[in-house]
Amino acid sequence: MNVLEKLKLRLKDNLFTRAFLENLEFNLRPKETLSLRPKDFLIATARIYLLFLGAYVLSNVFVSLFNLGYLNEFGDRMREYYEQGRIGWAMYAMNSFPFNIFLMAAFSILFQLYSATTSYAALWILGEPDRSFARMLGIAFSTGTYFLLAFFPILISYNLVPQSVQKDTFKMSFFLGLNAAFLILAITAQCIFYVRMCRSIFQQNFGRAILTWLGPFLFFVIVLTTNL
Fold first, then answer.
1. 150 and which of 91, 97, 126, 186 could share a cystine (Cβ 3.0–4.6 Å)?
2. Is the full-model pTM beyond 0.90?
3. What are the tens digits of pLDDT across the range 196-211?
């Protein structure tokens, strides 16, 4: 077996491929997840999500090292603003390497908790008899994985794009549109599988499953409008 064949075999069968296929199996055959205890389903989906999240964090740190000079310079400027009281600690951390990467990772986990909590509340409001927060959080982790996967090509493209593209309006518009396409594909996949899993696991019809998926967004809009 030559090196190329070994590489192909490794790409077909590795930790990440197995995790992706396991997650895809949950999405395509959600009824089979009912054979798992809610706790086991949650552990399985959280493990997959954290695996890809950890890979993204490491990839982001590695790629950022190629722009370390600029990142340190920008971080020093943010520290000056923070010490002068012009920005808060959160703004400083979100714009300072490597704190911004770890904060983003923590935020992604908190967002899945928020999504599961509001969607579970939607199940309660809709009067669904079959409710399980562990399963809802598992659905959030499982479908949220597609957002993580979309960030990998975006991360690579943002760090490899030449300066000439950033100065050309047409090329930059195409570049931003390409990255937007990755996010749109991720949102589409997340929506389809979220609704599919809610319908199978919680015995919802299509309309109720859509409302459950929209729960996080609707709650955010309600909070925003009531505080204006």
1. 186
2. no
3. 999 999 999 999 999 9
